[in-house]
Amino acid sequence: MMLEPLTFWILAIGLIAAAWSVILQRNPVASALSLAAGFVLLGILFLTLGSSFLMMAQIIVYAGAVMVLFLFIIMLLDLKTEEKRPVPYARLTVAVLIAAAFGCFLGTALTALPRGGEVLSWSRPAPPMDAGRIGELLFSKYVLPFEVTGVLLLVATVGVIMLGKKEAK
Amino acid sequence: MELVTQITLNHYLTLSGVLFIIGLAGVMLRRNIVVIYMGLELMLNAANLALVAFSRFGVAPNLDGHVMVFFIITVAAAEVAVGLALMVALYRLKQTTNTGDLTSLKF
Amino acid sequence: MNWVILLAPLVSAVLITLVLHPLRKISAGVSVLACAVSFAASVKVFLADGAGSVSAVTWLDYPGLLTVTIGALTDHLSTLMLLIVSGVGLCIHIFACGYMKDDPGISRFFAKLSLFMFSMLGIVLADNLVMMFIFWELVGLSSYLLIGFWFERPSAAEAAKKAFIVNRLGDFGFLLGILGVWWAWGTVDFGELKNSVSAAALPAVLAQNPLAVTLIGLGLFMGCIGKSAQFPLHIWLPDAMEGPTPVSALIHAATMVAAGVYMLCRVFFILELSPQTLQIIATIGAITAIFAALIATQQNDIKRILAYSTLSQLGYMVLAVGLCATSAAMFHLCTHAFFKALLFLGAGSVIHALHHEQDIWRMGGLWKKMPITAATFLIGTLALTGCPLLAGFFSKDAILLAALHNNIWIFGVAIITAALTAYYMFRLFAVAFLGQARSAAVQHTHESPPVMTLPLTVLAALAVVGGYLGQQAYLGQPHADHAGGGLVLWLSVLVFALGAVGGLWLYLRAKSERVHVDIFANKFYSDELYQALFVNGQQLLARILDWIDRWIVGGLIVRGLAVLATVSGEILRLVQGGNVQAYATVFILGVIFLCYWVMVHLQHLF
């Protein structure tokens, strides 16, 4: 019975710690690795919500492909550890204020949410969420966005190649 | 005590919000473009989490949220590819990825 | 027929300006021809005696509100005036052919002269106040153009401006008067006005405001003050002598300046309604008459003496109108046109012979060198000063007689003016034509060509017989038949003799000025007074407005807006730090604000 909260809290605390680590690490490689950890933890959180397909997608695309790209770029550009600069207190204050404002906003939104208090229980049957159903949806209801996404990926590929080419003299 | 023992939709949404705010803080505070990008990814993932949670707990639980997350993951992958390519191009031009040094928008 | 009178000079003006400009002699010929045609047509109209006939074209028609026609009114008043204008004009046109022969701008001159003839004849023929005003302004324009004919001379350009601007003041009053007439009687047509205006049946608006009658009269008189150069606005006429001498003769002696008097006679039935108006008119006329005569006694420029003499005589005419003696006024206008044109043309002949020498103290002894000019000038002088049996004698006596019957003070002023007239004219004649030659130029001069002496002769003849002709035409009976006629007759002969003898006695052998009266020589300081009062006041106002324009409008408002834009731009520029993260921060702030707004204001949608 205590399995759900236990899992959730462990994952949640780990996720927040990883996120903190991402933005606080001075070394970009450490940030990237923290981010990878965060992605994996988030994938597991998806699983707690009953979505195994998304967990796989998350881990493969994010923790796999995207992270590799990040690390690849960090290595390619040979980014050094950021040198210590004086803390920009003004910016920090502004950032904190904005974050606080956003937090307030989220809090207000959550208290107004119907069914916000519905308890998670694995034993209770969730709606069927296997990959097959998502595939059906993608090729029926969402076929147009799906195709457009394909075009988007194509364009991105072409764009990246163009950007990556050395300038022709 | 119930707050800890009873995991509800609000827990997930709060977690999503905290992640989002941390990502936001990263975007606003860090100077290295690559790390700013990582902050952006965090924010995207926070949104994904909220979507999946809604999909599970929503008024009429269904798979639309999942499909949305699927699209987000796809687009994010494309975005990261393009963004990082831009970064490479920028680095070639300016030899830096520090936003403090990239001020050609200044009037 | 009436239209021929009006249109012949216009055709000439247009033709010369557009086509004949390079052909100097043909231009002059066309202009003279046009004037001759006008004159012939005028004679025909005069003989036909279509009393009060009107041929009109409707120009503006607002039924029940205002109807303005362009028409030719030929009654007793206008046909006589037509004869004077076109006849004297013809003489002067012919004279100008000789006078302007060597001027490079002769074509331009004749084009303008024709334009003037057109405008002047338009005033005479006008059958309503609006048409008269239009031609009134056209006359002002052609006067401006002709005074400034030698515009390369700054003094001529200044004089032209002065004449134009001073005339505007009077014209403004005239316009107000016309509006007043329309407001009161609802028409501007002379014929309709004459029928509807009567002291017994004033329109309701006037019956309630007796002052309005006076004001309308004074407004119309304002036009006369400007155009006929009466006392407060007299300053432009002497300066107008900067124009060529034929112009001075035609416009500033014989015709245009008389237009004011003509207009007063035209609308006399309106002026008549208010005794106060007549009082003021008579007073202004008397003041002008004596004022100008006093100044004329101390002038040295031959044309200026004649100009002040003209002012003085115009004062006479206005005075006569103020005393209800309109026929005497028109009579004097007529004879004055003859002899003053003659005098100016004589002066022009002298000036031409002496190569533009105008100072009478550098003339002298011209009698022997230029006999015809001198003789005709003498006739003109005698006619002007009221020598018995010449033109001025009759017309002046008619005015004096009217004054004697109406107002003894004005009669006194008029008599003194008559004496002064004789004095300054004989001073002029003695200094310029008699005695010894005072400059080398005089010794080498000779008589002017026939083209110039012929008009002189014709005008001299008119100056001799004009009195007899005019008496018939205007007064209808010999003037001495009136009560007091004998007194006036002898008194005027006496003052003529006094003035003439005084002038001759003082100046016949004079080498230089015998009498010095600074205040007369300086024209009662009127120019200086105007300078101090109006020009400086206007300058001050202009300076204040300039300051306001420069600092308030230009500085505070126009530049202030520019500075505001610049400053706000500079402030906003600080935001554009070039730091993408700062932009992102602001963007996020915006997003948060938007979210709050949606939550607060669009809650009902969820």
In short:
The complex is a heterotrimer of chains A (169), B (107) and C (606). Chain B is built from 4 helices and no strands. With 107 residues, chain B is mainly α.
What structural class should be given to the helix and strand makeup of chain C? Answer: mainly alpha
SS content category of chain B: mainly alpha
Shape of chain B from CA axes? elongated
Name given to the CATH architecture of chain B: Orthogonal Bundle
- Percent strand of chain B: under 5%
Instruction: Using the CA coordinates, give the radius of gyration of chain C.
Output: 31 Å
Give the overall average pLDDT of chain C: 85
What is the number of beta strands of chain B? 0
Compressed to H and E, one letter per element, the order of chain C equals HHEEHHHHHHHHHHHHHHHHHHHHHHHH
Our measurement of the CA-to-CA distance between the termini of chain C, rounded to an integer number of angstroms, reads 93 Å
Number of spatially distinct domains of chain B:
1
Assembly type: heterotrimer
Q: How can the largest sheet of chain C be summarized?
A: 2 strands, antiparallel
Distance between the termini of chain B: 56 Å
Q: Output the CATH class name of chain B.
A: Mainly Alpha
Can you walk through the features of this model?
The complex is a heterotrimer of chains A (169), B (107) and C (606). Chain A has 169 residues and is mostly helical. Chain A has two domains: 1-84, Four Helix Bundle (Hemerythrin (Met), subunit A); 128-169. Chain A is built from six helices and no strands. In chain A, helix 1 packs antiparallel against helix 2 (28-48) and helix 2 (28-48) packs antiparallel against helix 3 (52-77). The longest helix of chain A has 26 residues, at 52-77. Chain B is mainly alpha-helical and 107 residues long. Chain B is built from four helices and no strands. With 606 residues, chain C is mainly alpha-helical. In chain C, helix 2 (24-48) runs parallel beside helix 4, helix 3 (76-99) packs antiparallel against helix 4 and helix 4 (106-125) runs antiparallel to helix 5 (129-147). The longest helix of chain C has 50 residues, at 526-575. Chain A binds chain C through residues 91, 94-95, 98, 101-102, 105, 108-109, and chain C through 581, 585, 588-589, 592, 595-596, 599.
